[in-house]
Amino acid sequence: MLTVTELLHPAPSPLWRLVKQAGVDHVVTLLDGGEQLWRWPLPGRETEAPAPYVVAPPGERPALARLQARYRDYGLELLRALQGCGGGGAAVHRGVPR
Fold this sequence. Notes:
- The protein has 98 residues and is an alpha/beta fold.
- The chain contains three helices and five strands.
- It has a five-stranded mixed β-sheet with strand order 1-2-3-4-5, covered by helices on one side.
- The longest helix has 12 residues.
């Protein structure tokens, strides 16, 4: 079975509602405060050097739970939160961060 997902920035944006309207129910995100988010270009500011983005440890259970709740508020299910350069991710299974 194929699950259609969308890679979204962890900060809510109009795209979140558009994705849901397009029939996408599952998302993959960057960890809020993770290394890859620091490299993510902001719309309209693609040519600027990124500023460091630092928050509490992004891979901790409370941080993942906040991300899940944020997406759930928009009717989306978080499948994976990507971290670092290794290409891995913090797995989220049935609403419980692992």
